[in-house]
Fold each of these.
Amino acid sequence: MICSKAPGKILLFGEHFVVKGKPALGIAVSRYAVVCIKHGKGEFFSKQIGRIDHESKDMLLFRTIIEKASERYSKKAVEIENVDVYIDSEIPLGAGMGSSAAVSVAFTHALLSYIGVDFSLSDVNEIAFEAEKRVHYRPSGVDNTLSVYGGLLYYQSGVFKRLDLKLPGNVEIVVVDTGLKRATGEVVRSVLERYDRVPVIMSKIYEAGEEIVNKALEYIKDANMIGLGELMLMNHGLLWAIGVSCKECDEIVHEMIRQGAYGGKISGAGKGGVVIGLVDSSISSKILESIRQRGFKAFIVKPDYNGVSEIRGID
Ligand code: MEV
């Protein structure tokens, strides 16, 4: 049996502004999807969602990856009926943490190892992106790129730059699920409508968003987490101004700051979804506890700098 694991991701800065060509900064985090493949009878099973029907939308992801791998290596990768695939993902679904991309990336990596071809990480990335494009509406490619390479990623107008930077080792990120579900496409549309109503004001907010990303790079280089936390709060304020915050989002940010976090903000589309806090590891458990006491699901992640990899020793 061949197994690969791939990380999820969060956006640190720049969501929404990126839709109008401004830069954003994402980071791969220590929540993983594991996918295993072995010779079998076409059983695709997810620990979280159960047996995957061969005609389902989830199956389309696996089918596309097999099809694209076959095209790329000019041989039939595998017949679905001749393999068993097992998926175990600890990345929350539909929370903007790249759960689908991590499964695509882990499956692509495991499949290419299983069929024994020479491959690079960029092969994995391109094949996984094909699957993401087939299953999701206009994905940017940031989720699969972060899941493949790990670390910090700067992206702007479709161009990705893996940064040779790390957050200080004592820094952790608290991820809080507001429990409010929203369709990313609809949130994006509401923001763009506001942009059309007041373009002069909105363009200034977007410029400020860009300056925040540039300053964040400087602070990360200098290991200035107090500065980085302040920028997160400013970014949260800008997201409020474009209309994507929510009462729970603000409550969580306030509580994290009260408990000593460096900063906090919405991460992703907003109007619910996920809120993140940048914290020192010495107080992360305390912050987690206080957020949970308010009834929210929350967990701690660290940056992942490795990206996708094979897991050895599983039978
Ligand atoms: C959603 O995770 C991020 C947005 O910027 C949308 C996008 O970039 O496609 C809100």
Amino acid sequence: MEKIIVEGKNKLFGEISIGGMKNSALPVLYACLLTEGECIIKNVPEVSDIINTLEILRGLGAEAVFCDKNTVRINAKYATNIIKHPDLVSKMRASYYLMGALLARFGYVNINLPGGCNFGERPIEQHLKGFETMGAKCTQNEGKIEIKARKKLKSHKLTLDKISVGATINMVIASVFLDGITLIENCAIEPHVDDLIRFLNKCGAKIARSGRTICIRGVKKLNGTEYRIFPDMIEALTYVCFTAIAGGSVTLHSIEPSHLKYCISIFDNMGIKLSVYDKSLCVSRIGNMKGADVVTAPYPLFPTDMHPQFSALLCYSENGGSVKDDIFPTRFAYVNELKKLGANIDLIGNVAFVNNSEMKGTALDATDLRAGASLVAASLGAEGRSEINNVNFIVRGYENLVEKLSSLGGKIKLLNN
Ligand code: EPU
């Protein structure tokens, strides 16, 4: 079992590049199943969720490989809808994009329910409502779901009851070939949604987004293309937390500043020094840091995927603050782990009230991807040595985390034992 060892209280200095966005790359890779030609997808992070996705695609009969550093080549011409790796499908959340992609291409999919980070109930009824609206029948049975086109699927107008990244993306993928015009309202507008739309349009789709409404004019086929994935906003923001906790000064390259606006204004108010230069962000923390109160909400507001890392940050602020998660109200398993380090946190319902804390390194267990990042963050500022177990969660979404932090002077290593 691998573990990450961190010696705290070492400042970070230097520069790193932020990788491509995992949560954009995943739907784009699944959407390649809709295309007839070869797709070359650049800036794909080499993390375990992506590696498993390529395995799932190969299991369907597609060619799907890393052909160069962070570049994936996919040719899905001979893909089928027979899923050879149900175990991998059950392990990850994004495998639910197979529902939209295989329904659009074959009119039929029979698939295990998706897994992914476990922070409470993660329903998919909005996805199913959408498939039903376009004329499919969805039947759930013993952890599997069968989605079948009753007859030819039809364009439609759908209002999502809940803003959902996954349901929005699945609706876009599933609707690309429907005759006529499909309108989807109350959509998620995370950069991952726009990344997918840009990719599909480059392949020949006709999709436009205006506010929370997406309009899809059906096309007969999609061609292969070359496409570059957006930078990972969550990775960038996580490194802001790392630097603010450890102290020092770090420049993050290859970022997209417009995606970070809301969080930058929060960090700025806390006294963290941030300067944006074109596609780079310089972060430094010299003196004390003030606290803040945040509430997670769909983009462009505070992302739930920054919630655990932000709680770690608040432990090092002068006057503390709070994090309320309205998107995943039970995403708090990390709190007990932070408490092992000495964090002074009161969890009341879906709000963590975090006070300034004396943090001391100890043995910790990552409970999910962002929780793992929160423990790394907290350990960077703690006195002494921390040992973080369940590294498999962290490598789902952070590429070369140990290497990147080491290159900044962090005392961190990966132990295999
Ligand atoms: N929801 C429903 N019904 C549905 C779908 C969603 O009630 O049919 C609810 C959820 O329970 C939640 C809210 O809607 O309260 C938003 O969920 P969403 O569907 O947007 O989440 P997701 O698609 O399951 C993706 C990311 C998550 C990220 C969320 C929110 C991927 C593969 N996953 O999940 O990423 O937290 O959007 O932004 O893109 C991560 O990267 O660590 C991660 C967990």
